[in-house]
Design a protein that fits this description.
By secondary structure, chain A is α/β, with parallel strands linked by helices. Chain A has 18 helices and 22 strands. In chain A, strand 1 (5-16) and strand 2 form a beta hairpin. The radius of gyration of chain A is 24 Å and the shape is globular. Chain A starts with a strand and ends with a helix. The two termini of chain B are 17 Å apart. The chains are: A alpha/beta (494), B mainly alpha (315). Chains A and B meet through helix 10 and helix 11 of A and helix 8 and helix 9 of B.
């Protein structure tokens, strides 16, 4: 019954200069099913989705909707054919209301002059929200909404477009556990109405929970499609990575040394009463929900936010950190959670990004291009950064490789205290494992590591101690052996 | 600015497109008029572009750092009248008007830069304000009248030849070399690209962003001061109404040269080519007796066309 497929995309190929992004890929989607697409960054998922949503055209291949061949010349065509996409980074009109956002470009109009029929606009938007079973007032401004709520609005928009297939790209990357469950309930409702979901995510447990079918891609090629019920996470990882992954988290020597960093009663705009110590060779995990103040505390320690009161000691010396410059000078390094915002100069080359933070230390007024090139090449090798050359503009690298560039940059200054904020967000399993190894190696070399993460397995797997942050204060300190996901969540959520 | 390795003719064109355009324009004009490609005319072109060239190099710093400077035309007038009023024959040695002209430019740059960094006002607004402030100061200083009767030595800067080459051209070349070295081979140059490309990332890398911006605005207005001295010397007058809308030609040259108005991307070489394209088109259209009305239209089309080409190449 091959015609039972809602979408049949077959033999899809797409090349970009120098890269074969997709090589004879297929994707078969059934009505009313959640179909997960998995693969490492650079596996070709995004390219395939961009083709389905009409953003780019394939070089070869056919796309059949309901057994009829379709060609998209624009996103508009794809939407008319029944596709909608909820992007990872939502792009709403912040000053407009929920209803206006939903019907943007398709407002109901009346009369000769085409006045917008506001009454109908809000009534229709309200009905959509009701259908979704969410209680977001449609006259609220988009900017007042949380990310999870914005997603609901995007889904409502897809429904109003009569979407038959909704593509969700990493929908849970920025929402909390409870919100994920709300989203999953809505997804289940949608599938009951016959809508198919293409679900893209790196999160194994979520995929196994929500997906009916899983397609795995690797290096631009189609690998396999299986019913989710026939898969477990180890097998899935093998499919994705294409090699056996030994235990992701290795045991390491925990040789703790003297106290490198000590914080007393730190207070700032979004946190207060923060006190903790950190020893050489130690990995300190910082857990908590989104918005609990974890990032703010660490940014203050790095001089990106103002410290209102409290004391910071580095190697027993009282220090006054007013800017990242002071932090770096005191041997603190930060790998920020938002590499595009605070990590990288996207328009510059890999080389220039790697050396950016250490020019002040290594060069005088004039730069040393030969030395710089040598350093960059060495770091590219050491960190296994996949780039055609050190001169490649960093914007063209995949997420995992960009993250490694940030890491190389920060570590080039040889900091003693290294803060990782969500070091593996949005990067694939292969790169994740590499980053775990690097973190472990740093601790073994006698560095002190702080790691903020929302992924509990990685916090528990790596940390010697975990601080749970809620409402801007540390609510609990858990020792390595007493850590469990349940316990952390219990303190994080109260 | 770095580029990936050249692999195909398309890559080649995207890297050297503007340069190729310059050569094509030159060839076309050589065919169209016999007077174009002569040593004498080339010197004329170079002398004509040197003032816009110095300005354009200056504003390249600011644009790569992610800012903009609209006050250049007025700064030219202000520095010109200040320098001229100390350049009457038999008053001060030549160094005095030159240094005071440059210093005036530097002070304007410092004010622009401080208002933008410490005051956190948008560069467009600050320099728009400075555009009328500096113009007003030039008129106040000169009491609205041209400052004439300048010394021979002062007039040599804009009108004299050294080793058969007009002095403005020599100054322009000097500015090109120094700026190319600063942007490519010094730490502050690298920081300018970083700040323009991503201010937050630059700050998180321990760069003192405000100082970098200040440097860019001071270089920009300082070079405008130099251009003001050259212009006053060339027309042997400190003219408070000189230089109106000069900033537009300078910014146009930078943009034609492939420097992104978003910051973080661009080069001195590009700006020089942009300056030459504008100068050669002006000169060529003059030689062809095209009316100045049409010249304006053609120039505008070229500015937008160049950016359009750049856009397409930037994928």
């Amino acid at each position: 019954m091959s015609s039972s497929y809602l979408l049949q995309a077959e033999n899809i190929s797409k090349s970009f200069p120098g890269v074969k992004a997709l090589d004879n890929v297929q994707l078969l989607i059934e009505k009313g099913k959640v179909h997960a697409v998995m693969g490492e960054n650079g596996a070709g998922k995004s390219t395939l989705m961009k083709i389905l949503i009409g953003m780019i055209k394939p070089d070869h291949g056919s796309i059949m909707m309901n057994g009829r061949e379709v060609t998209f010349h624009s996103v508009h065509d794809a939407i008319l054919a029944g596709f909608s996409m909820i992007h990872q980074e939502l792009l709403p009109f912040p000053e407009l209301t929920v209803a206006e956002n939903i019907f943007m470009g398709r407002e109901p109009v009346t009369g000769f002059f085409g006045w917008i029929n506001r009454k109908k606009l809000y009534r229709d938007a309200g009905k959509l929200m009701e259908k979704l079973g969410v209680s977001i007032k449609v006259n609220r401004k988009m900017k007042e909404l949380s990310i999870a709520e914005m997603q609901m609005v995007e889904i409502a928009k897809a429904l109003s477009n009569r979407a038959e297939i909704i593509i969700m790209d990493e929908p849970t990357s920025a929402i909390s556990g409870r919100e994920v469950q709300v989203l999953f309930n809505i997804i289940r409702d949608l599938t009951k109405q016959g809508i198919a979901i293409i679900y893209i995510s790196h999160k194994m447990d979520e995929i196994l929970e929500i997906a009916d079918t899983i397609t795995v891609m690797r290096d631009g090629k189609y690998i396999a499609t299986h019913p989710a019920s026939a898969l477990n996470s180890e097998y899935l990882i093998n499919l994705i990575v294409g090699r056996e992954l030994n235990a992701i988290f290795e045991k390491r020597n925990t040789n703790k040394g003297e106290i490198l960093l000590s914080v007393e009663n730190l207070e700032g705009e979004k946190f207060s009463g923060i006190s903790f110590g950190l020893r050489r060779g130690e990995i300190l995990g910082i857990a908590g929900l989104m918005g609990a103040g974890r990032t703010e505390i660490m940014e203050a320690l790095f001089g990106l936010r103002r410290i209102a009161s409290g004391t910071v000691y580095v190697k027993g010396q009282k220090v006054n950190i007013r800017s990242p410059r002071h932090a770096i000078a005191n041997g603190i390094g930060l790998i920020s959670e938002d590499r595009k915002h605070t990590g990288l100069v996207l328009s510059s080359s890999v080389k220039h990004n790697i050396t950016l933070a250490s020019l002040a230390k290594n060069d005088g007024v004039f730069l040393h291009p030969d030395k710089e090139k040598k350093i960059a090449d060495a770091k590219i090798k050491e960190f296994n950064i996949k780039t055609p050359s050190a001169n490649q503009v960093v914007n063209f690298l995949s997420g995992g490789n960009q993250q490694k560039v940030v890491l190389a940059k920060v570590l080039l200054n040889d900091p003693d205290i290294i803060i990782f904020d969500e070091p593996t967000r949005g990067i694939d399993i292969g790169a994740k494992t590499e980053i775990y190894k690097m973190i472990t190696a740093l601790a073994e070399k006698g560095k002190a590591v702080i790691m903020i993460s929302s992924e509990l397995p990685e916090i528990i797997g790596l940390s010697d101690r975990v601080l749970v942050v809620r409402g801007g204060t540390i609510v609990k300190e858990l020792k390595g052996e007493e850590c469990s996901q349940e316990l952390i969540m219990q303190y994080a959520m109260n | 600015m770095s580029f990936a390795k050249i692999k195909s003719p398309a890559d080649y064109f995207s890297r050297y497109g503007i340069f190729i355009a310059l050569i094509v324009i030159c060839i076309a004009l050589s065919v169209a008029t016999p007077n174009f490609f002569t040593a004498q005319n080339m010197l004329i072109v170079l002398r004509q572009v040197s003032i816009n060239g110095i300005l354009a190099i200056g504003v390249t710093y600011v644009i790569i750092a992610g800012g903009i400077d609209l006050s250049l035309g007025s700064v030219i007038a202000l520095t010109g009248v200040v320098a001229a009023s100390f350049a009457h024959p038999g008053t001060y040695p030549l160094l005095v008007p030159v240094l005071l002209g440059l210093l005036t430019g530097v002070v304007v740059g410092l004010l622009n830069g401080l208002t933008i960094t410490k005051g956190k006002v948008a560069p467009f607004i600050v320099t728009l304000g400075m555009m009328t402030i500096a113009r007003g100061l030039a008129l106040v200083w000169s009491k609205g009248r041209p400052v004439t009767n300048l010394s021979k030595e002062f007039n040599f800067i804009g009108g004299g030849d050294l080793l058969f080459v007009p002095v403005p051209i020599l100054l322009f070349v000097l500015v090109i070399i120094v700026s190319a070295v600063i942007l490519k081979y010094t730490r502050i140059g690298r920081y300018i690209y970083a700040v323009g490309g991503n201010e937050n990332a630059a700050a998180a890398s321990g760069i003192r962003v405000n100082r970098v911006k200040l440097f860019a605005y001071i270089m920009c207005s300082g070079l405008a001061g130099l251009a003001g001295i050259v212009l006053a010397s060339r027309i042997t007058t400190g003219q408070p109404n000189a230089g109106i809308a000069y900033e537009l030609d300078a910014i146009a040259a930078v943009v034609i040269g492939g420097t992104s108005l978003l910051g973080g991307r661009g080069s001195i070489a590009g700006t020089v080519i942009g300056v030459l394209i504008i100068g050669i088109i002006n000169n060529g259209l003059d030689l062809l007796n095209v009316s100045s009305y049409y010249q304006q239209i053609i120039k505008g089309v070229i500015i937008v066309g160049a950016v359009l080409l750049d856009r397409r190449n930037a994928r």
